[in-house]
Amino acid sequence: MADKTVTINDNATGKQAEMPVRSGTHGPDLIDIRTLHSELGYFTYDPGYSTSGSCQSDITFIDGDQGILLYRGYPIEQLAEQSSFLEVARLLIHGDLPTKTELAHFETSITHHTMVNESLRIFFNGFHYNAHPMAMLTGVVGSLSAFYHDTIDINDPDNRLLCAYRIIAKMPTIAAAAFKHMVGEPFVHPLNRLSYTGNLLNMLFARPSEDFEINPVAERALDQLLILHADHEQNASTSTVRLAGSTGANPFAAISSGCAALWGPAHGGANEAVLNMLSEIGTVDQVPKYIEKAKDKNDPFRLMGFGHRVYKNYDPRATIIRKTCHEVLDELGVGNDPQLELAMRLEEIALADDYFVERKLYPNVDFYSGIIYRALGIPKEFFTVLFAIGRTPGWIAQWMEMLSDPEQRIGRPRQLYTGPARRDYVPLHRRR
């Protein structure tokens, strides 16, 4: 029995069960209830799994009350300021910051897996011109298993690592192809001489008819956003990847399931919802009116991109990206964009309003990321695709960790059944 335990009393029967308590490096202890049903005959009820631990993980830690986010123990502030996205991706997958040689090898490996099979590129012709890019991304990522079926033995660590590298490398290529299909332009092949994020920008915006020059401020801003989105504990999409992966599904299918979960407006679509909100507000002179609407609990209007379910203090990612957001707006000279002007005015008022300050409803990473994407000329329906590119290393790291965990079993949540009691079949001619 563990040193620390919790005793659960069943007041109906008088039975008791002693449950071990498990402690991690950081965060609250967890009661291990795996024997609860065998000892007392109960399951637990926790809609949304908001107080249930489904696994143990070495990857990411969040303290929402203190505004702390750590990747493999490293504060997100330090990584976002000093690291690159590929360095963070390797950190998440391998567990430690790489040496210069290790990082160079990783970058080379990713670079030489960015191409996709030409047959796969033809898949995009099957999508309608106005198909949502997340529909394309989800479908095409899942189809990768049809091209690499000889190397998806999930029980082989080398195969798992090769799949990890392939998925991280090909996500920008697939995403950019979805973007080009959406805007009706020719696909752009990846260029090995460019950085990961520079390559993404080039594949998004380059055209055969003219040269495209990558703006270093835009490149760094996008790289930073990918870092901030790289992992976030057991959120909805990550849990979906783990749940799908627990069945033994191939990694491409598991990551595709993560894309599908991320698509929801309550998850990866939150920054798109920010721009929809700005469109609803309309003009700067309407901001005070909508601020008052947001304060009215009987009014359905909500300020999107403010506050966070996890962070009860300031979102640490927002602290970083706020500075970058203003740098992008200054560099790209988009001061004449009414919606961006509106966003900055909304931020200014909300940060000074006692109602929002007292409730710690600060702008979060979704608020600033939506503004940056808008400034870069990216359509709002494509925001979640960029989120998916950033989250891919986290999904992959979580999937690999799950497969190496000896305690991991196929996911099988329980339920509280409230339907009809047992009843007998009534023949059709006797029903009234």
Automatic annotation (TrEMBL):
PANTHER family: CITRATE SYNTHASE. Residues 1-14 have a biased composition (Polar residues). Pathway: Carbohydrate metabolism; tricarboxylic acid cycle; isocitrate from oxaloacetate: step 1/2. Belongs to the citrate synthase family. Gene3D superfamilies: 2.20.28.60, Citrate Synthase, domain 1, Cytochrome P450-Terp, domain 2. It comes from the Bacteria. The active site is at H308, D366. One of its GO terms (biological process) is tricarboxylic acid cycle. Residues 1-24 are annotated as: Disordered. GO terms for cellular component: cytoplasm. GO terms for molecular function: citrate synthase activity. InterPro entries: Citrate_synth-like_lrg_a-sub (IPR016142), Citrate_synth-like_sm_a-sub (IPR016143), Citrate_synthase (IPR002020), Citrate_synthase_AS (IPR019810), Citrate_synthase_bac-typ (IPR024176), Citrate_synthase_sf (IPR036969), Citrate_synthase_typ-I (IPR010953). This is Citrate synthase. The keyword Transcription does not apply. It catalyses: oxaloacetate + acetyl-CoA + H2O = citrate + CoA + H(+). Keywords: Transferase, Tricarboxylic acid cycle.
